[in-house]
Amino acid sequence: MSTQSGSTAVSPPDRPAVDAAESEPGSGATAPAFAPAALGLALLALGWLAAMLWIGQAEITSSDINSIVIAMAALALPGLISASMVGGAGAAVVVANLLTRRGVHRSTPRFALAVGAGLLVGLLAALTVTLSYGDGDSITVLAGTVAAAATVGGIAGGVRAVPVVGAVVTAGLAVFMINTLLNIFKDPLLDLYGYGDTDQSQTGALEWFSRTGSIGGGLVAGLLVFAYLSWARRRTVALNPAATLPRWPAYLVAGAGPGLLLLAAELLTHTAGARLLAAAGSLSEVDQGLQDSLSEFRFDQALWVLFVGALTALIAFGRTLKPTTGEPLDDDTDSVRPDGPRTGDDGDNGDNENDGDNGNDGDNGNDGDTRDGKGAGEGQNAKNAKNAKNGEDAKNGEDGKSAEVAAAERVDGELTGVDDDEIGWGDEVEPQRRGGRRAESDAARP
């Protein structure tokens, strides 16, 4: 009931479910955004991991020779690590969406459950390696490295920017598939790039082949990141118009995400799988050289995918921005003033007008003193010389005319017909001029 007299009690309107979830104690200020198609991405990522485990198992178990097993395990290690990271991140995205629907918005439980999802995927992958790849120290190292990679993917999926993680998973899967397709058509591409019998032609063709995969993967990754985040943006607006939308840093980080994923996989390969790589390199100098060249190739590819993907996603996002609407500023802001139009010559004209008035006042005020009149006339001539628009001397145009006569002509308007012969430099001026002007005591001098 209302406490004011004459008022009617009105129940407050029901709040949306999103707002109610945000107002729960301990739920956090805002709800994290959903990642679209999270379940489908997780199934694709786990399917890719299963495919890589199957391919690695087929290659490693194809020979009973220990040295060949070690070499094949070292070759399969980078692919298994990257696939495990994507699989752990995909599972973490699904868990994050479920927690958002359940109203769990605090960072601590979300991060812990996401890491747990990645760890679970890693344990299943490690168990598969242990049971199907055989025995030996190399297999043990491979299984532990795969489990660690999946856990790292779960850690990455525990961040609150869930759509960004989903975009990275999508782009990462696309990069893996492009590399697989290029390997299928490797021979025709090498022939196209001029692969021949000489070492120079072979090196050049291999470099072009690697650049094709890197640049193509980066372009596709950037475009997919832009498309996925745009989709997530529309869904977020539809579900909660007041939610914070991803801006350009999200597109930049997500575009660079596949390259960062490849760099992290290479780092795990040289840390967690260091024993396996060392064992493979100790077999022969050829194996050591092969490991070094493959490591360099993977590092270069990761850098290319990182920069090309980030730039592509950022440029695609920048093309969607629109210029701010506003009234254009006037080209000449000084031409319009509150008190009317203003030009650059106003000050000069005003000075000229004032100068002319002052000169007239000086002439009229000193009728009795020809020296003062002469000085006022000289001051008037100096000002007229400075201001070109004041044409008093040009109008008079006669060098021999005195300043007193010119001033009298402007004020009275009655002496315009006086000839030069009437006024001489040594003659005296008439005592009375036109109805009672006072007599001038001295003759005008130049």
Give a verbal description of the structure.
Helix content is 68%, strand content 0%. The chain contains 15 helices and no strands.
- Sheet of most strands: none
Distance between the termini: 102 Å
User: What is the strand tally?
Assistant: 0
Name the quaternary structure.
single chain
- In the predicted model, the low-confidence regions spanning at least 5 consecutive residues are 1-29, 329-377, 388-401, 413-432, 434-446
Helix content: 55-70%
Global shape: flat
Radius of gyration: 46 Å
Helix and strand element order: HHHHHHHHHHHHHHH
Strand content is under 5%
Mean pLDDT: 74
The total count of helices amounts to 15
Structural class: mainly alpha
Topology, pairings included?
Elements lengths: L16 H7 L14 H23 L5 H37 L4 H26 L4 H21 L4 H23 L1 H7 L6 H41 L8 H24 L2 H8 L3 H34 L27 H20 L4 H17 L5 H5 L6 H10 L34
Helix pairs in contact: 2-3, 2-4, 2-6, 3-4, 3-5, 3-6, 3-9, 3-10, 4-5, 6-8, 6-9, 7-8, 8-9, 8-11, 9-11, 10-11, 12-13, 12-15
